[in-house]
Amino acid sequence: MDMSYSTSAVDEDSQLDYWQRLVCDTFLQLEFERPARPAAGFHGELAAAAGLDVMRVATVTSDPHAVSRSRELIRRSLEDDLLVNVVVRGRVAVEQDGRRADLLAGDFTLYDSARPCRIACPDPFRMVVLQIPRDAFAENGLPRPAAGATATAVRGDRGVGGLVSPFLRALADRGAALTPRTAHRIAINALGLLTTALSDDAGTRTRPPALTRASQLARARRYIADHLDDPLLTPADVAEGLGLSVRYLHSLFRAEGASPLRWIVAQRLEQSARLLADPFQGHLSITDIAFAVGFKDASHFSRSFRGCYGVSPRAYRTRHARPPPARAVP
């Protein structure tokens, strides 16, 4: 039988917190971005279909919100699944690996719990979520979807996507009524259909146009800027996040007389200098700033900073910091 949950079961002041716990307990550990103008209360419903042993299937209906999964959260989590979002109503944007899939009703996309992602739903929405253990494809004789398939929209109004989307939505509506043996067979068929729809030759995926080397370099620099606070960030992480080979990533920076690692360090030092000179960050210690920009060791930070700017971080702060401007009194 289906298991259904609703925020209407708790008082208004507790509804958003209840929804966060419910979604994290059902799917993955996620970080929630609260609505910019939160209304009184928060509406959310989750119906989890039972009986599909190869995968977990649920229908999510909710007010607008966004969730993300950071590299730090991934390190602290045990989940290792592939997930598929099938939009039933509303708009959903899924970002991962430097790509963004903008989905409308009927569209679906794949994302990987082992890599950072963000899912934004700007309107009230309903979608079916399939959570599939990573090994389920191989265990049933099927190829696992390629890494390049993440955050790429499969359109539900054309080609293979038009056939697969209604089938996936029906799993949530009718899966609980199937016998265990039939449900298992249907779930295996769903994996096969997903493999077909997500394959490079299916003709249903909406691919971004080819990027120039300059555009790829700009993407790499932006990715590094967005992940500077990760002390374990490596060129391999950047390449994986962008769907590039490490060799190609190095070639992009080499053409600029740099390397990915040197760029990461340079950006950390530049950001630390901005923080040291910012009067509004005077409450942060030197060590706080070092850790905030991704250095793991305060002594290493101080040596690197001196090597770049010729003075210690403390001397740089003394030389450049100014008191914050006084607020005008009306």
From TrEMBL:
Family matches, as InterPro entries: AraC-bd_2 (IPR035418), AraC_XylS_family_regulators (IPR050204), Homeodomain-like_sf (IPR009057), HTH_AraC (IPR018060), Tscrpt_reg_AraC-type_HTH (IPR020449)
SUPFAM superfamilies linked: Homeodomain-like
UniProt domain HTH araC/xylS-type: residue ranges: 218-319
A GO MF label: sequence-specific DNA binding
Keyword annotations from UniProtKB, A to Z: DNA-binding, Transcription, Transcription regulation
Keyword 4Fe-4S: no
Pfam family, one: AraC_binding_2
Keyword DNA-binding in annotation: yes
Top-level lineage group: Bacteria
Protein name: Helix-turn-helix domain-containing protein
Organism: Streptomyces bathyalis
